[in-house]
Specification:
Blueprint lengths: L3 E7 L3 H12 L4 E4 L15 E2 L6 H18 L11 E5 L2 H16 L5 E4 H7 L10 E5 L3 E2 L2 H16 L2 E3 L4 E7 L2 E6 L4 E9 L2 H7 L1 H6 L2 E11 L10 E3 L1 H4 L3 H4 L4 H6 L6 H5 L4 E4 L5 E4 L3 E4 L12 H12 L9 E12 L5 E5 L3 E5 L5 H16 L8
Parallel strand pairs: 1-2, 1-11, 2-8, 4-13, 11-19
Antiparallel strand pairs: 3-7, 4-6, 5-6, 9-10, 10-11, 12-15, 12-16, 12-17, 13-14, 14-15, 18-19
Helix pairs in contact: 1-5, 1-13, 2-13
Protein name: TIGR03364 family FAD-dependent oxidoreductase
Family: Belongs to the DadA oxidoreductase family.
Keywords: Flavoprotein, Oxidoreductase
Length: 390
């Protein structure tokens, strides 16, 4: 019985790990398998902010539950959560109007936010340029994480305190029903059995079910990000989201003025071409993470995105960031890109095969914020537990 589990989760990123977390919370015996020696996909290559404020009303519920879960875990075990809040900075009258409208929406949802005057923004965020900022909207409950370390700390916590069976270097090559069990086998002919198997990794999905993958509406997004050298004694608290974020994030799509404002935007700007919006977040070592850009291709044609960093995009982002905040240094010590999968026509890709194999992937940029809350509801559904209300 050592290799038989109530749940086998395939994929050790944030989505798979939180599916494992919630299965463990239900008292189930759980095995999490990861194809590599450690998680190194989109979860470790993201910006590291948990911002339910940027999500539409449906996903904000998942994001707010995620916040609660992150803070609960952090109270027991350090997984790098820092609660410094998030702020959206408006640079003009249109963006300020969207902030006012979003605040009204969140007030109706009982989600705390506060409008900041120009002067309050300048006092709260050192280096913020007076010729950029007009107003801000602050969400005090939101948090940041260290993306390169958080997932490892979370898995360490689950192994040490929740009895998770975690298997690295376990590339799955077959997933076959076998009576009341599903057999999950890797390249070394090692085998685990699950009453339910949940596949949360796009690569494993593609390898195991190529025809279903080819017929899906999955696309991939390539996002470029950078990290400066440490900024000395300079402190920038929380997640800083700027005017182009206001014009991009799904939450603002629900604002009454959004469609009119988007219609008036120039259609051929570099910002549009590269899908750029400017974000700032200070890492634990005092450096600043800057981002990000978005370029898209069908998941089956990921090679169209190339494997290089485009310096024109990076230089454009640095130039625009300089117009917003005067940092002590904009010297860059690291550059990288992340590849995220998402659906063109739905929030997330889900398909069940033979009742006991569940594919759940394509959460896109919602992963760090939404996975913990979404997984709670999805695990409860898969295991026929009473409906979870968020």
């Amino acid at each position: 019985m050592d290799n038989k589990y109530d749940a086998v989760i395939v994929g050790g990123g944030i989505l798979g790990t939180f599916h494992a977390y919630h299965a463990l919370e239900l008292g189930l015996k759980v095995c999490l398998v990861e194809k590599d020696a450690y998680p190194k996909g989109a979860t470790t290559q993201n910006f590291g902010q948990v911002v339910p404020s940027g999500m539409n009303s449906k996903w904000q519920k998942f994001g707010r539950e995620s916040l609660r879960i992150y803070k609960e875990i952090q109270s027991q075990f350090d997984i790098s959560i820092r609660q410094n809040g998030s702020v959206y900075l408006a640079s003009n009258e249109e963006e300020e109007q969207l902030l006012i409208e979003l605040r009204a929406i969140n007030s109706g949802n009982n989600y705390t936010s506060k409008m900041l005057t120009k002067q309050e923004c300048l006092e709260r965020y050192p280096g913020l340029r007076t010729d950029y900022v007009r107003a801000g909207l602050f969400f005090p409950d939101e948090v940041t994480v260290e993306p390169r370390t958080m997932i490892h700390k979370l898995q360490e916590y689950l192994v040490a305190q929740k009895d998770l069976d975690l298997k690295f270097d376990f590339p799955v090559v077959s997933c076959e029903p076998n009576g009341e069990w599903v057999s999950v086998q890797n390249t070394k002919n090692e085998e685990v059995f699950g009453r339910q198997v949940i596949i949360c990794n796009g690569s494993d999905f593609k390898n195991l079910y190529p025809q279903i993958f080819a017929a899906s509406d999955l696309e991939v997004s390539k996002l470029q990000m950078m990290q400066t050298k440490p900024q000395g004694n300079y402190q920038l608290k929380g997640s800083i989201l700027t005017g182009w974020s206001i014009r991009r994030y799904e939450a603002f799509h629900e604002c009454p003025s959004f469609a009119r404002i988007k219609e008036n935007e120039p259609k051929d700007s570099l910002q549009k071409k590269w899908g750029v919006h400017i974000l700032f977040k200070q890492a634990a070592d005092g450096s600043i993470i800057l981002g990000d850009s978005h370029q898209y291709a069908d998941a089956a044609k990921i090679e169209e995105l190339g494997y290089d960093l485009d310096m024109d995009i990076d230089n454009f982002m640095i130039g625009e960031a300089n117009k917003i905040i005067d940092l002590p240094t904009y010297q860059i010590k690291k550059r990288w890109y992340g590849i995220y999968s998402q659906c063109k026509n739905s929030d997330i890709f889900q398909k069940t095969i033979d009742d006991n194999i569940h594919i759940v992937t394509g959460i896109g940029g919602k992963g760090m914020t939404g996975s913990a809350g979404f997984s709670k509801k999805n695990v409860a559904t898969i295991f026929n537990k009473q409906k979870i209300k968020l």
